[in-house]
Write a structure and sequence with these properties.
Blueprint (H helix, E strand, L loop, with lengths): L2 E19 L2 E15 L4 E7 L4 H11 L11 H12 L9 H23 L3 H4 L7 E3 L2 E2 L5 H13 L4 E5 L4 H15 L4 E5 L6 H11 L4 E5 L7 H11 L4 E3 L6 H9 L5 E4 L7 H12 L4 E4 L6 H12 L20 E3 L8 E3 L9 E2 L1 H13 L3
Parallel strand pairs: 5-6, 6-7, 7-8, 8-9, 9-10, 10-11
Antiparallel strand pairs: 1-2, 2-3, 4-13, 12-14
Helix pairs in contact: 1-3, 2-3, 5-6, 9-10
Bound molecules: magnesium ion (MG).
The site of magnesium ion has 6 residues, from loops.
Length: 377
């Protein structure tokens, strides 16, 4: 199965409502739809996330694509890492694996989709099979004010989500008001997780952990900057009483090793766009498994394509969390027509159609492509 062409379509998938978090407000997900055409007629489909804007990620993809043309769709692992060497290391600009990964993960996913379609098998079966019957997800609380957030938290709790997840780091007073309103709204039974997205320093984090402790918090995700590494998280973890999740500190197996070795977190939040796709996601998960640390799927600005891929990979990993992040529901309109990706009682069955297992909604893709042409940045 030879690769004959790779098409890239930049998309802006608008959110239902403004997305409030510690780093600001976002209004949509910029992604690049990747379609790998082969000489068998099979087309593999994936998506690349594209932060902060689409143009530079698209430029990297366009630089990489000629290396795939004429090659076997089964040789993705080799072609991708040869391109890393030739496209990043050998150009003397230093190592940039994190940036590289978000672009090339899109091609890796599309290749898995093509391979699965050719074998008429879903991705999780190609990976050796599922170790669970369902993947469980968080209820992601949305809104701006404490009242809005508490009301949505109640709705999610009523819909069966047992893990609720809330963005904090928006100011001490507002954070406490938000968490207090949500805890009052959902009662003592709900498991409540917070994500400060890197905005606190050590001292602020210690103060905020103390203020938030009375609300029975399951963990706080990435309270301090990811670039402070495992040392920073380990220092905070030793001085505070709420468990810590590492997110922006971990992008690959080596980072997972560093977190585990330094006892820096209680859980690792990681996604397939950070690891450059499926193969390396599983490697990082295996490293964490050896330290009895679970992996929680990281949600980024993405569509149902990523939900389907992540769901299937998560199905194969023993040490998966039960409050995994899911993000397509933030979109005003998803570009995936099937399967139904609305969790029931906070869970989805394992996606079971060949490849990544989704059917694309071409009309929705066209509308998202038009939205990008209107608002490219
Ligand atoms: Mg996070």
């Amino acid at each position: 199965m030879k690769i004959t062409a790779i098409r890239t379509t930049p998309l802006l998938c608008k959110f239902k409502q403004p997305y409030h978090w510690s780093q600001g407000i976002n209004y949509g997900a910029p992604v690049i739809l990747i379609e790998v055409e082969t000489d068998t007629g099979i087309v593999g489909i994936g998506e690349a996330t594209a932060s902060p804007v689409i143009a530079p990620v698209l430029a990297i993809l366009q630089d990489a694509i000629p290396r795939f043309i004429g090659q076997s769709a089964y040789d993705g692992n080799r072609i991708i890492w040869n391109y890393y060497q030739a496209g990043f290391n050998a150009r003397g600009t230093g190592s940039a694996p994190r940036y590289f990964s978000q672009a090339l993960a899109g091609i890796e996913l599309a290749l898995w989709d093509a391979i699965g379609k050719a074998a008429k098998l879903p991705l999780h079966k190609l990976l050796g099979g599922a170790v669970r019957d369902k993947v469980e997800y968080f209820g992601f609380v949305q809104g701006d004010t404490p009242d809005e957030l508490a009301s949505h938290a109640s709705d999610l709790s009523d819909a069966g989500f047992k893990v609720l997840y809330v963005k904090v780091g928006r100011g001490a007073e507002l954070d406490v008001a938000i968490v207090s309103a949500i805890r009052t709204a959902v009662g003592p039974g709900a498991r409540l997780r917070l994500d400060a997205n890197e905005v606190w320093d050590q001292l602020t984090a210690r103060r905020m952990f103390e203020k938030l402790e009375p609300f029975d918090i399951e963990f706080i995700e990435q309270p301090i900057p990811g670039r402070t590494g495992s040392e920073g998280l380990a220092r905070l973890r030793a001085a505070t009483n709420i468990p810590i999740a590492a997110d922006q500190t971990v992008y690959c197996a080596e980072d997972a090793f560093d977190i585990c070795r330094n006892r820096a977190a209680d859980v690792i939040v990681l996604g397939i766009h950070e690891t450059c796709g499926v193969v390396r996601f599983r490697k990082a998960a295996a490293v964490a498994e050896a330290a009895a640390v679970n992996i929680c799927l990281h949600g980024v600005f993405e569509t149902g394509i990523t939900t389907c891929a992540s769901n299937q990979v998560a199905a194969t990993i023993p040490n998966m969390d039960d409050g995994n992040q899911i993000m397509w529901q933030l979109l005003a309109e998803d570009i995936v027509k099937s399967p139904n990706l609305v969790p029931k009682d906070g869970a989805l069955p394992i996606v079971d159609a060949p490849g990544l297992g989704f059917e694309l909604d071409r009309d929705a893709v066209n509308r998202a492509a038009e939205a990008y042409r209107e608002t490219p940045a």
